[in-house]
Amino acid sequence: MTPGVSIVADDTRSWGLETAGPGLLLNVPSTGPWARRPALHLEVAPSYRLRLRGGQKTLLWTRIDSYWDQAVFVRGTDSAPRILPVLTAPEIRTVDSLPGTETWWTAWNWKMARALIGAPLPVLHAGHWCLRPIRAIEAEKAERHPVSPMEWSFGQPLMPPHSLAAVTQFPLAWTEDWWEALPGQRPGALLPLREASAAEDGRVKSWRKRARDGTLPPVLLLFVDILAKWVVLDGHDRLHAALLEGTEPPLLGLWPFIDRPQPWNATREEGALLAAEFQLRTPPTPDTVDRINRMLLFSFSHDRRGTVSRAWPLPGGQAAWREELSARRRLGPPPLLDEDDWDWLL
Fold first, then answer.
1. Reduced to 3 states, what is the DSSP secondary structure of residue 6?
2. Which of 15, 123, 220, 239 is deepest in the core (most CB within 10 A)?
3. Which residues contact 127 (CB under 8 A, 6 or more apart)?
4. What is 217-262 written as a DSSP string?
5. CA 320, CA 44: separation in Å to the nearest integer?
6. pLDDT, tens digit, for every residue of 251-273?
7. CA 235, CA 75: separation in Å to the nearest integer?
8. Structure confidence at residue 331 (pLDDT)
């Protein structure tokens, strides 16, 4: 018998995020269908060349500078395939608890977990996953620079989501300076996988009614740590509807993680205390106190969990990368990229 995915309550005390309710841990086996690369996945070629695939379509090409200073992004010409089945009104009515309560979140956790396990275009791969309610922050409060692989020991803390209005924007290409990042490009920024439907679209109007009465189902986001962004897996229209109504959308975050037990280290703990003392020499703001507390918890914890995105080798390697992007360029260079950006990307 092929083992299935096991689902248990999330016992992690803190992921460094503000969570709105209880979560679930999914343990995906490495046999059967889970041994294959999922339909939505990252592929990698040398020098931090990354390709995001959805089904047989390329959704995004990204190249990151080797010093982790900047990145260039180019979208594919195809729209992202639907990852989860369309939510129907009868399905939504099966969750009859008061929205935002623990029982309401638990019901949606389980509904989304089962949908992910049975998805025709799978996202999950072998390993550990967390599915948990999360809350967005203001972009100005986000970290200013992504954490590079050179700075973390395989697995890192999550970044809270922000800049949800990005779901209404869909640039075909753009560059990011990670030292002087605009607030909407800081770690934790939202990355939609398709263009937003028009505000007059019937489905958006239907979701707007639910946003007004507080019964909007959660939007499902996936954290991609190497890009330091949250990808919208399911709920582009729901998120758009909430923005149009000026309401806070319920968000469910999904991320792969690894357990990182670490031995006691006096130098690390002493360094954390010195860093905290230095930051507290001037009257701290509430944000500073919160950041220090998270840093101390992270430094003194001996049983930590961190997120890490899995990637597969890009078939054909760098030659295939150049051929694909050259063909994309011949279709008409997207705006906001100059010739130097294209040459470096290739």
1. strand
2. 239
3. 28, 30, 256, 258, 310
4. PPEEEEEETTTTEEEEEE-HHHHHHHHHHT-PPPEEEEEEEEEEE-
5. 11
6. 999 999 988 665 556 665 677 67
7. 20
8. 82
